[in-house]
Specification:
Elements (H helix, E strand, L loop, with lengths): L2 H16 L4 H8 E7 L8 H15 L4 E9 L3 E11 L13 E13 L2 E9 L1 H6 L1
Parallel strand pairs: 1-5
Antiparallel strand pairs: 2-3, 3-4, 4-5
Length: 132
């Protein structure tokens, strides 16, 4: 896999999966069956781990949309800056829903193996999110 293919994995997941509400359909095309959450290696792995992430944020922010701001890739890694926006309509990190519209930025780094995301790390402007 080359850099261009790795950039396409990000686009496919965010635009065709997350933003289009088709995460279950797109997930096996972009994530490895044994995917690892690099921020929490003890978390659920594979598709169950991806589902847990999607459920957490999808419940807190139904209809959450992600905008890709920049993608940088090589043959093994792909990183992207993003902005996400939605309405806080469900619990998140122990906080009750506020009903407020929020916008948050972050960075994600994926290690790619055999044409799929094998391991991922996510940095979110949590302080900015909590202030909203």
């Amino acid at each position: 896999m080359g850099a261009a293919a790795n950039r396409e994995l990000v686009r496919r997941w965010i635009e065709d999966g997350w933003n289009a509400g088709a995460t279950e359909r797109v997930m096996p095309e972009v994530f490895a069956e044994d995917w690892i959450d690099g921020d929490d290696p003890s978390a659920a792995r594979g598709y169950d781990g991806v589902r847990a992430f999607v459920e957490t944020y999808g419940t807190a922010f139904p209809g959450l949309q992600i905008e890709i701001l920049q993608i940088v890739a090589d043959e093994e890694f792909v990183a992207f800056r993003w902005r996400a926006g939605g309405t806080h309509a469900g619990p998140l990190m122990g906080l009750p829903p506020t009903g407020r519209s929020v916008s948050v930025t972050g960075h994600t780094l994926h290690r790619v193996a055999a044409g799929r995301f094998a391991e991922s790390w996510v940095q979110v402007d949590t302080a900015g999110l909590l202030h909203q």
